[in-house]
Specification:
Number of helices: 28
Structural class: alpha/beta
Number of strands: 10
Largest sheet: 6 strands, parallel
Helix content: 55-70%
Oligomer: single chain
Distance between the termini: 89 Å
Mean pLDDT: 82
Length: 643
C-alpha cells in the first residue's frame, strides 16, 4: 500500500511503544523511538518501505510544532529574553562548534570531519525540548522562554551551516551564497511585517466568520505549511517559515481557536518524527560500538550543559534557570540528521562517522527526558552548599516591611496595590532587567535569589510580618517558604501554587494562604455564572468563600446548592453613619446596637484611619464608617436604626 501502509505500521508500532513507555513510567518519546527501531530498515520483521517519504512527513512534524510555538508565543512574550536569544545563542554555537572540533580531533578524525561534527552537535532538538516543556507545563516560565528563544535562533543558524559546510573547499563561494540567503530572509521578514501582520489575521477573521470548522482547519494548516514552503523555496528553513506564520497569526483574536484545531495534527506528525529518528539507528552498529558511542554521548551532553549553563549565568540569569536550560538542551538536535545526510552526500563523512553521529544524536535525545527531570533536586542540593549572595541591598525599611518575592506579572500587581496604600514593602527579584524595572517604578528592591537566606535577611525577612511569594517555579517557591519559616517563625506567608498537589504541600510547609491561579480563574467564572443565574450577590460571595476556605477541594464534595442560603449569615458590610443620626456622641453600649438589631460592630474607619478596637465605651462621631457583621435582615435593621 506504499505510504499509507507505512503510516499505519508506524502508528501501530508507536501505539505499542508509547503504551510500554507509559507502563514503565518512561517518557513517551522513548517509546516512539523504540517503535522506529523496530519498524526501521535495519531490523527484521515488518519494515517501513518508503523511508525517505516518512522523513519528509517528519519534517512536517517539526514545522507544525514550530507553527504552534509561534501561535502560543507572540514575539512580545519573548522580548524579555531577546538579549540571550540574539547574543547568547551565537556565542553558544561558536563555543559548541569549537568544543566539538576539539573532541573530534581527540577521536582521531580529520579537521574537516571535526568541523562537521562541531556544527552537528551545536544544534539542540526543538522537538524534544518543546515536547518536554509542553508535557510539564513549563512553556510559559522564564526558563521555557529562554529555551524557546535560543531554539529559534539555533534553527535559523542551520541555514548558513547547510550552505557553508559543503563549500569548505571554496569559502568565497559559500559566503556569497550565505549573503544571498540573508538578503532573502531580510526581504521575507519585511514583507511579513508590513503585509503579513495585516493580511493574514484579517483573512483568518474572514474565514472564521463563515462558521465552517473544516475550512478554518484547512486555512490554518495551509497558512502554516504554505509559508513554510515559501521560505523553503527561497532557500530558507521550512520550519522557520512555519514559525514565522504562527507568530503573525498569534496577533489574531482567533489564534487560540487556531491552536486548538491544529494540535491533534501536530501530535500525529510529531509522533512520526520521533519514529523516523528511531528508524535511522543501526542496532548492530550500536551494539558493536556502544562503549565509544556512550563515551561520545556523555562528552557531548556534559560539554553542552556546561556551555548552556555558563551562558545563562553570563547573561545575568540565576536561580534554577541556568541548571534547567543546561539539563534540557544538551542533546543533539534533529537538524543533525539533515547535516549528516548532507555531509555523506558530499563525501565529507564516511559511513563509520555517519552512523556514529546518528547514534549519538538519537541516544542523546532519548536521555534528555531523564537528564532534565532531576533539575529541581540538583539545584536544591547545590544551593544548600553554595548560598546565593545579595547583588544589591536597599536602605533599611522602617517598621515591618511586606516582602514580595518575584516581580513577574503577579508580583507587579501586588506591588502596585501595596504602593497605592502606602504600605512599606521590599521586592526581591533575581533577574537584572526585571529588578531594574522594579526600581524604576520606585519600589525598594533587593537584587538576588529569593531562595537564599542571605537575600531574605537583607530584605528584612527576620522582622517582616507578611511575605508574598509570587514566583512561578515549584522548587523556588518551596525553598522560599522553607527559608522564610526558618528565619521568622511568626511570618505570615501568602504563596502562589503551581497545582492542587503543590497547594497541599505548601500548606503542610506552613503557609497561611495559598493561591492557585487556575482555581481563582475558575472561581471567578463560577461567580459570573451564578450572577447570571440570579443568585443574590451576598450568597454567591459566601458560597465561593466557603470553597476557598476549605482549601479549594475538600469542600467540593460537601457544599450543595442548599448551602448558598445559610452561608450568607454573618456577612460584614461597611455602613456610613449619617450626620443626622441620633447615635452621634453615644458609646456602643449606650446605643444598644446589638440589642436592638442583632448586628455587631467590629471596626470603624475615622478620618481615613482604621480603628479595630471598638469596645463598649467606643463613641461614634460624624463621618464614621462602621463595619457591621450579621445576617442580611440584621444589617438592614441596623441601617434603619442608624437613621
Amino acid at each position: 500500500m506504499g505510504i499509507a501502509g507505512d503510516l499505519a505500521l508506524i502508528l501501530v508500532a508507536a501505539l505499542f511503544g508509547g503504551l510500554l513507555a507509559h507502563r514503565l513510567g518512561l517518557p513517551l518519546i522513548l517509546g516512539y523511538i523504540l517503535a522506529g527501531v523496530l519498524v526501521g530498515p535495519n531490523t527484521i520483521g515488518p519494515t517501513v518501505g518508503e523511508v525517505h517519504q516518512i522523513e519528509l512527513l517528519a519534517d512536517v512534524g517539526v514545522a507544525l510544532l514550530l507553527f504552534t510555538v509561534g501561535l502560543e508565543f507572540p514575539l512580545e512574550r519573548l522580548a524579555p529574553v531577546r538579549s540571550i536569544a540574539l547574543l547568547g545563542t551565537p556565542l553558544q554555537l561558536g563555543l559548541t562548534v569549537a568544543y566539538g572540533y576539539g573532541l573530534a580531533r581527540l577521536l582521531g578524525w580529520t579537521p574537516n570531519e571535526g568541523l562537521w561534527f562541531g556544527c552537528l552537535i551545536s544544534i539542540s532538538s526543538t522537538m524534544v525540548v518543546l515536547k518536554i516543556l509542553m508535557d510539564r507545563g513549563l512553556t510559559d516560565t522564564l526558563s521555557g522562554r529562554v529555551m524557546v528563544g535560543m531554539l529559534v535562533m539555533q534553527d535559523l543558524a542551520v541555514i548558513p551551516m547547510t550552505i557553508i559546510l559543503p563549500t569548505l573547499s571554496n569559502l568565497d563561494e559559500g559566503l556569497a551564497v550565505v549573503g544571498a540567503a540573508l538578503l532573502r530572509a531580510t526581504i521575507l521578514l519585511a514583507v511579513m511585517a508590513v503585509f503579513g501582520t495585516r493580511a493574514l489575521p484579517a483573512a483568518m477573521g474572514l474565514i472564521a466568520s463563515w462558521r465552517s470548522r473544516e475550512l478554518f482547519i484547512v486555512w490554518v494548516a495551509a497558512i502554516g505549511l504554505g509559508v513554510g514552503y515559501a521560505t523553503y523555496a527561497i532557500g530558507l528553513s521550512f520550519a522557520f517559515g512555519a514559525f514565522l506564520a504562527g507568530v503573525v497569526l498569534s496577533r489574531s483574536e482567533y489564534s487560540h481557536q487556531a491552536l486548538s484545531e491544529i494540535i491533534p495534527l501536530r501530535e500525529i506528525f510529531s509522533l512520526v518524527f520521533f519514529v523516523s529518528v528511531g528508524m535511522l539507528l543501526k542496532p548492530e552498529f550500536l551494539l558493536e560500538q556502544w562503549p565509544r558511542i556512550l563515551a561520545v554521548v556523555v562528552a557531548v551532553m556534559v560539554g553542552k550543559a556546561l556551555i548552556f549553563g555558563g551562558i545563562c549565568r553570563t547573561f545575568g540569569y540565576h536561580n534554577i534557570l541556568p541548571l534547567a536550560v543546561a539539563l534540557s538542551m544538551p542533546q543533539v538536535g534533529e537538524f543533525a540528521f539533515v547535516l549528516a545526510r548532507l555531509g555523506r552526500e558530499h563525501e565529507a563523512l564516511g559511513d563509520p562517522i555517519y552512523f556514529t553521529l546518528l547514534s549519538v544524536a538519537v541516544v542523546s535525545m532519548g536521555l534528555t527526558p531523564f537528564a532534565s527531570q532531576p533539575a529541581e533536586r540538583v539545584y536544591q542540593w547545590w544551593r544548600a552548599r553554595h548560598p546565593a549572595t545579595v547583588s544589591e541591598t536597599p536602605a533599611p525599611v522602617e517598621g515591618n516591611p511586606v516582602l514580595v518575592a518575584g516581580f513577574g506579572l503577579t508580583g507587579r500587581f501586588v506591588s502596585a496595590v501595596l504602593s497605592r496604600l502606602e504600605q512599606p514593602f521590599v521586592v526581591i527579584e533575581a533577574d537584572p532587567v526585571t529588578s531594574r524595572q522594579a526600581r524604576e517604578a520606585g519600589y525598594q528592591t533587593v537584587v538576588g535569589d529569593a531562595t537564599s537566606e542571605v537575600v531574605l535577611e537583607a530584605a528584612g525577612a527576620a522582622r517582616t510580618r507578611l511575605a508574598i511569594v509570587t514566583l512561578d517555579e515549584r522548587l523556588a517557591i518551596n525553598l522560599v517558604v522553607e527559608r522564610l519559616r526558618h528565619l521568622n517563625s511568626k511570618v505570615r506567608i501568602i504563596s502562589r501554587a503551581t497545582s492542587l498537589e503543590h497547594l497541599e504541600e505548601l500548606y503542610a510547609a506552613g503557609i497561611h494562604e495559598g493561591v492557585l491561579p487556575e482555581m481563582e480563574a475558575g472561581l471567578e467564572l463560577a461567580h459570573q455564572t451564578l450572577s447570571h443565574l440570579d443568585y443574590h450577590p451576598e450568597n454567591i460571595l459566601a458560597f465561593l468563600d466557603g470553597v476557598r476556605q476549605s482549601h479549594y477541594q475538600e469542600v467540593l464534595g460537601t457544599l450543595t446548592p442548599s448551602a448558598l442560603e445559610p452561608l450568607s449569615q454573618l456577612r460584614m458590610e461597611w455602613l456610613p453613619l449619617p450626620d443626622t443620626s441620633p447615635l452621634l456622641g453615644q458609646s456602643l453600649a449606650e446605643a444598644g446596637i446589638r440589642t436592638q438589631t442583632g448586628a455587631s460592630i467590629v471596626a470603624v474607619i475615622r478620618q481615613d484611619r482604621l480603628l479595630p478596637d471598638t469596645g463598649a465605651e467606643f463613641r461614634l462621631q460624624a463621618g464614621d464608617r462602621i463595619a457591621a457583621v450579621g445576617s442580611r435582615d440584621q444589617r438592614q435593621r441596623l441601617k434603619e436604626f442608624l437613621g
